[in-house]
Amino acid sequence: MWRPLARAGAPLLRTPVSGCGAALPSCAGLRTLLPVPTFEDVSIPEKPKLRFVERAPLVPKVRREPRNLRDIRGPSTEATGFTEGTSGILALGGGYLHWGHFEMIRLTINRSMDPKNMFAIWRVPAPFKPITRKGVGHRMGGGKGAIDHYVTPVKAGRLIVEMGGRFEFKQVEGFLNQVAHKLPFRAKAVSRETLAEMQKQQEEKERNNQNPWTFERIATANMLGIRKVLSPYDLSHRGRYWGKFYLPQRV
């Protein structure tokens, strides 16, 4: 090995040795490690696990509501930030959570978490919106069907579950993403830092946008008569929300 190096003229490391048994100074593999968090100000509640969610409200609604898709369209104004925890599941689109989704979230997180160092809380209410359905083979007409089950409407940007305690985000990111992939809408696991970074990137994208032809300018100027095919929601949301879907690439 040394002969090819000598022929190539590669410089060799020469260190003066004081004695025959002296060790050579080595600096390879040294890393600058961050200090370990102490979590001194974190307190675990008496019941750290997710509580059971009822399949139907205790006082069921007698009136059968219309479909009303406005409750899953657009950005959420509730539960958009953390309160007690540091990690959670963020909805990236709108949709309905059934009772089976609540049970899947509860069982997966309660089995994967460490109750001595972690706690989890719900950030969405129990199912309260009635969904009607008619029987198989029923003829058309006869009014609205009977109430079949209840759901919880969720908008984009809302936290589903929040976790806190003495842990780091990488310890819970795996099973939180596992839960997020099973939801009926797009979702992902986030922490306080990643959520703040997402909001910062969106603001920076709007501030440094070099394209003058934005959706807001085209719709405001009514170019090519586009206002005829736009809804009031498109104007208020500036084209970022198409039904229950969130389009973050639009500026």
Q: What's the helix count? A: 6
Largest sheet: 4 strands, antiparallel
Please provide the ordered H/E string of secondary-structure elements: HEEHEEEEHEHHHEE
Radius of gyration: 28 Å
Q: Structural class from helices and strands? A: alpha+beta
What does this 3D model show about the protein?
- Helices cover 25% and strands 17% of the residues.
- Helix 2 runs antiparallel to helix 3.
- It is flat and about 80 Å long.
- The protein is of the alpha+beta class.
- The protein starts with a helix and ends in a 5-residue tail after the last strand.
- The strands form three sheets. Strands 3-6-1-7 form a four-stranded antiparallel sheet.
Defining key terms:
alpha+beta, 9 strands, 6 helices, 3-stranded antiparallel β-sheet, 4-stranded antiparallel β-sheet, 251 residues
